[in-house]
Amino acid sequence: MNQPVKLERRILPALRRICTTAILPVALCGCLTAAAPQPIRALLVTGGCCHPYAEQAAILSKGISARARVSWTIINQGGTAKDSKIPLYEKPDWTKGFDIVVHNECFADLTDVEWVKRITAPHHNGVPAVVIHCAMHSYRDAKTDEWHKFLGVASHRHEQSRKFEVQTRRPEHPIMRGFPTRWQPPGTDELYVIDQLMPTADALAEAYGVETRANQVCVWTNQYGKGRVFGLTTGHFNQTLENADYLSLITRGLLWAAGKLSPDGKLAPGYEPQQ
Fold it and tell me: What is the pLDDT of residues 3-18, one digit of tens each?
């Protein structure tokens, strides 16, 4: 009668050792994976008229990567034309392989509705985006509201370049944490006239327009279908893009859109910049 009890006493400890040995590496692997996520794969689309886009692409990619773990693919197509159909957008799956798209392009005279819908469709399906400055005037006269719905704003013009002050409206928003309550772009910049703020958008900051005699939204978020969008209209000149406050703001906006920013404005663990 005692033999089964003795056998059980010998077997159970052995089984426990086997289970512990087998499970431990898996647990360790899981910890390592969680501690070292892949960097955010960002696609920067740039080109078109009116700006030194090659220089701006370098400023943005280096400045953001100094603040967060982001890897970049930069597409600079279309030359200086306002109506270019760039090769990138010819592919229906043009966002494949990327976690977020940064639009810093200026194709103001392109009005092909189906082309616009080809660009916006992946974002509506969930690909997040950052939209900068002249992206707001790209495709502006196409006979569709889809581009404006994607952006979260509609704009067709800007005021004359001058000094102005950006005032934070939502200091508690994670994107605005650490950004000055009042901030001036260095030198001068262009303040865009916002004709419409979409119901899906949330204004985060604004600046007073001397010509319009009204406050103009210049920093905001938008929900476009399943996709998060962060937008800002400042950024005409390189000196604005090079500003430390501006680069920190756009980095937090990118992280927020990609779902990598905590409610208190901090990076998700593992997305700190590589030293």
Answer: 444 434 454 444 445 4
